[in-house]
Amino acid sequence: MDVLADFVLTSVSGRIKRPPSTDVAPAVTAAPNPLAALPGKWKGRGFNQIWRPFHGSQDRFLELNETIETLQFEAIPGDIPNRGLLQADINLHGIRYLQQIQDANVLGPNGKHAGIHIESGLWVSTPPTDNPQDPATVARMASIPHGTTLVAQGSTLPVISKAPPITSVDITPFSIAPPHSPVSFPETNLGVPSQFRTSPADIPNVTQAMVDNPNSVLGQAIAEQTIISTTTLKVSTAPLNPLTSSGGTSNIAFLQGAADGPNAQSVQVDSTFWIETVKQPDGTTKLQLQYTQRVLLNFNGLSWPHVTVATLVKQ
After folding, report:
1. What is the pTM of this model?
2. Domain span at residue 229?
3. Dist. CA 294–CA 291, nearest whole Å
């Protein structure tokens, strides 16, 4: 078979081969794969908060949701060769995923839980590289139907034999321009009625503590658990030390807006995923996935945090 025919066949099958050569250096492969525990179906509950732009008497609406989530991962078999010019080829390993989030209390027109979010994408693990000089990393590539795609890269932290250290997260908007001063709004105070915040009837279990710090939902979920192992995946569309580069976001024209500013431009995504082994009272263990994600939406001169958290159990 000639080289062109071989290239075409392997491209269709999902594996692009470099023409045979005697001087091709062996690919570098990462081991072990930090994503190995993810394939399968995970289900659970969480909390979603987003400042939505509002076209009307004021610029914002604070949406809050108690959520039901399914996150399905499927392994990509075999190596994923990445061809190198400045250094030897490397082999990536990856999984594809589909995330579906619904409102736990609000029903849609079909009588089922209303959909909030759907996202398809890939996770890949990358071995250490010489050019750029980066340690082993993981990357998440996502596509969201609102019209945003993203690449977020980061590192895996050392596995710890305890629960993860979950820090707080703030939903207060801040100025896009330096010094990025915070700007508070009354919608964050659940004690003050507002037509520009989700109706209390739709969020019966949401507390002020959850609004003040959405990550408190994660801490509460594991407060009584015995977690004996935690693997941490931390990725961002902005550079994370010691990464030399990480990725970014891309938005459709409507989100980016025109000369007078964006409608709602996703400019940065930061997320941390914790894969936890939980020891149960009967001595058996289960796998649990917790995550927190903050997306910065830019509109009307401010960056508005959009925070999503969830605790999922592998089925």
Report:
1. 0.89
2. 29-314
3. 10
